[in-house]
Amino acid sequence: MSMINFSNNISNKKNQSNDAISLKAWVDSFHNDSELREIFINLDRAMKYVHEHGYCIKTFDPREIEILNNSLNQIKFNTLLEIPDDNFSKSEFVREDIYNSSFIQIGIYTNCLEYLKPDFLRDNFDSFATFLPEDDVSYYKGIVERGASVYFSDYVLEKKKRDLASLENEIGGEASGYDKQLVKSNGQSILDDSHINDAINSNIYKQISNNADAAFINLLVYPTILLVISVLLALFFLIVSFL
Prior knowledge:
By secondary structure, this protein is mainly alpha-helical. It is 63% helix and 8% strand. A three-stranded antiparallel β-sheet has the order 1-6-3. Strands 2-4-5 form a three-stranded antiparallel β-sheet. Helix 3 runs antiparallel to helix 4 (87-110) and helix 3 packs across helix 10. The longest helix is centred in the C-terminal third of the chain and has 37 residues, at 206-242. It starts with a strand and ends with a helix. 23% of the residues are buried.
C-alpha cells in the first residue's frame, strides 16, 4: 500500500503561522461536550471523504490529527494509507477506521484514552456509557459491542430525520408542509450539510482528490485511445486488402 504523509506540509505551515493545532492540544484546553461532538462529527466526515477516495487512516493518535484555521470543520489526518483495490479489503479497513475513531472519541469523553484497552472497553461499555452524550450511546454501543460499520455523521443525520418525523407525528396536521420547508430547491435536505465538509475536505486532501481524478481520467481515456487505435488499424488493413 502506498502512503501519503501530510505532516511535513503542516510543519512548514506551523513555522509560518499558528493555523494548526493537534486534536490532543485542542482537547487539553477546556471544551464542553457539544464542542467535542461537533469535532467528532467533522472528524468522521473527513474520514469518510478519505475512504471515498481510496485511502484509510494510518493512525488515530490525537497528536497526528489536526484542526486547521481554528475551525471545527477543518480536520486533517496527517498520514494516510492507500486501501487495496478489492471490496473485502475496503470494507475491513473502513470498519477498522470507524472502530478506531469511536475508540478515541470514547477515550476523550471519559478522559482515559491513554489507559483504555479495546477488550476492557467492550466488556465494561455500560460503565463508560454514563460519560457519553445520551443521544449517541446506542451508536457507540453498536460499534464497540457488535462491530457495526456505520459512520457517526450518517447516524447523526438519520437521527435528525427520525426526530423530525416523530415531531411531525406528534403535532399531526399542524406540521403539514413543514418537511417541505426543510428541502432546498435542488432537492437536498437542509438537515444534511455534508456538502460543506466535502468542499472543505477536497481542499485539505487535494493530493488524494487529484489522484482520484487522475485515476478516473485514466480509466476513461486509455480505453478510448485503444479503441480509436483499433478502429484505425482495422481500417488500415481493410484498405490494404483492397490494394
